[in-house]
Amino acid sequence: MAMSPRSNSGNSLYQPMPEINVTPLVDVMLVLLIVFMITAPMLSAGLKVNLPQAKTAEPLDPK
After folding, report:
1. Which residues have CB under 8 Å from 2's CB, separation 6+?
2. Going by C-beta distance under 8 Å and a sequence separation of 6 or more, which residues neighbour residue 15?
3. Cβ 13 vs Cβ 5: under 8 Å
4. What pTM, to 2 d.p., does this model score?
5. Distance between CA 14 and CA 23 in Å, rounded?
6. How far apart are CA 61 and CA 51, in angstroms?
7. CA nearest neighbour of 3 among 17, 19, 20, 18
8. Pure H helices in 1-63
9. pLDDT (tens digit, 9 = 90+) per residue, 10-61?
């Protein structure tokens, strides 16, 4: 736990600082995880595009 100087305390010069609450951070991370889990399968579905075929190109020699 971190210590910080407190000038208005009578007991000691250094008192422990309150800890940071990580519950909201965990809540946000879980919501983001759920959003990505739902949207990730949708990314593989794409748009079907009819590409033109080359008629004058020569095939490459495999080496």
Report:
1. 16, 17
2. 3, 4, 6, 9
3. yes
4. 0.43
5. 27
6. 23
7. 17
8. 23-44
9. 556 777 778 888 999 999 999 999 999 998 888 776 778 898 888 887 878 8
